[in-house]
Amino acid sequence: FPTRRSSDLVTGTLSLVDWQHLSVDGNVDGLTVAQAASILTPRPMPWNGTLAGSFMLDTTVGEPTTQAQAKLTISPAADGPPIEGILDADYEQRTDRDAQLSLGTSYIATPATRLDVSGTLGRRLEVNFHSTNLDDVAAVMPLIEDDPQKGTVKALPLKLTDGFVDANGNVTGPLDNPRFRGRVEATKGIVEGHAFDRFTSTVDLTQTQTSASNFTLQRGATEATGNATFSAGQDHFNDATVTAQFNVRNADLTELLKEAGSTLSAKGTASASVRVSGSIPEPLADITLDIAKPEAFGETMDRIRATLKVAKDSLDVSAGQAESGPARLTFSGRSEEHTSELQSLRHL
Known about the structure:
Elements: E1 3-5, E2 8-17, E3 21-32, H1 33-37, E4 49-60, E5 66-76, E6 84-93, E7 99-109, E8 113-121, E9 124-131, H2 135-140, E10 158-160, E11 165-172, E12 179-191, E13 194-205, E14 209-219, E15 222-233, E16 236-252, H3 253-259, E17 266-278, E18 283-296, E19 299-300, E20 303-310, E21 314-324, E22 327-336, E23 340-347
Antiparallel strand pairs: 1-2, 2-3, 3-4, 4-5, 5-6, 6-7, 7-8, 8-9, 9-11, 10-12, 11-12, 12-13, 13-14, 14-15, 15-16, 16-17, 17-18, 18-19, 18-20, 20-21, 21-22, 22-23
């Protein structure tokens, strides 16, 4: 059955026995990615490539028994943003509830992004992902939205500035509730205006929970290491509950205050042990703080130590101690949105 439309060509054989058993064997040569994608979605593809390879279909009309295979290569087209790859797919359905799509070694790549996959969709897929431009990911999201009316390109919270993202792991579970577990690394990025040099972690991601264990976050000489879990609330992750415990070292106090939005001018090198609970809108933090060579309000000291309890509208300070040579100053206090109380202050 040869069919030709402009530059594409699909050829093969088709048989229908007793108007029930359908068998198709064919070849594709020159079919564009956009034309193939239009079978599944009305949205335009952001890249251009051509398909070539073989396919087969064997099914019985009216019965839930189908077997299909496709071995296709994608080559960059002469015009438009290029895309390339290999698709090795095997679909088998034996009953209404027993169907699976298996992928041999397959990949898809643009100039900035590459995704390698193999395994069985809905059960276990091995995934390797690398990208230097996450706009590729944002461009794909509208293509897989359930509601075509919602298909708009949305900016991702993570932006790369000459960096990359690597993700290596596996995807398990049903398609409507997948779970990714693996290793993630990101370099030279910005999240909600906050820049970092490198982030690495073992992650466990579902639609309702994000966990990062043994993470390391670096910015210049500053390093934070620990574990964090976010569990979605009624407003998805905008009001998620959070549990985190991490240590910070070599933090520049000037940068920390700037990141926190404070107008206070101070210098020093801070280290801290931090525990966070509560929710994203109203987090609670217990902090053991140690600042070396602090400078503020025209004063310079050798060290400041304190234990802090931070809530949305309050700050409790206990076990505070400032050192300058042989002098010691202990302090504690509480600061709220409208009041501030110094509980104790004494020299040693």
